[in-house]
Design a protein that fits this description.
alpha/beta; binds D-ribose; Ribose 5-phosphate Isomerase B, Chain: A; 157 residues
């Protein structure tokens, strides 16, 4: 599977580990960095946009964004139309976010989860698929309606 990945300085070096384990598992990575531990002027929204746009354009099947807490990455990524980003700290949320919510981006907090837990979360997310059950599709359609409404309705003056 083709997977887009990006991390700011807060997500480094967890991104290097995730890139390695996904590569070992045979996945193709679209890697937006960072690979520079010394940089503190790199901002998580820039990585969120790069990964989110790659997923939205179907250049990657799913994406992973890592920052310090994962919070900024998920807030930024969820601003992109067509992106459903899940901030996960456990494996249940990781696979359910795909199976029920059809999330296409995983966000991780490198300062919050340990390397082994992060590895299992990534495997759970990447290995899961939207199950398409009617109740989940109905809920997803409602989420997509919100997105359409938000992008087409002008704010009240
Ligand atoms: C960067 O220092 C840090 O604020 C960022 O990686 C992230 O945790 C934001 O949510």
């Amino acid at each position: 599977m083709k997977i887009a990945i990006g991390a700011d300085h807060g997500g480094y070096p967890l991104n290097e580990h995730i890139i390695a384990i996904l590569g070992d598992a045979g996945h193709e990575l679209l890697d937006f960095g960072t690979h520079d531990a010394a940089r503190t002027d790199d901002d998580y929204p820039d990585y969120a946009v790069q990964v989110g746009e790659a997923v939205r354009a179907r250049a990657a099947e799913c994406g992973i964004i890592i920052c310090g807490s994962g919070v900024g990455a998920s807030v930024a990524a969820n601003k992109l139309r067509g992106v459903r980003a899940a901030l996960c700290g456990d494996t249940y949320s990781a696979h359910q976010s795909r199976e029920h919510d059809d999330c296409n981006v995983l966000c991780l907090g490198a300062r919050v989860v340990g390397v082994e837990v992060a590895t299992e979360i990534v495997r759970a997310f990447v290995g899961a698929r939207f199950n398409g059950e009617a109740r989940h599709q109905r809920r997803l359609d409602k989420v997509l309606d919100i997105e359409r409404r938000e992008t087409t309705t002008p704010d009240a003056a």
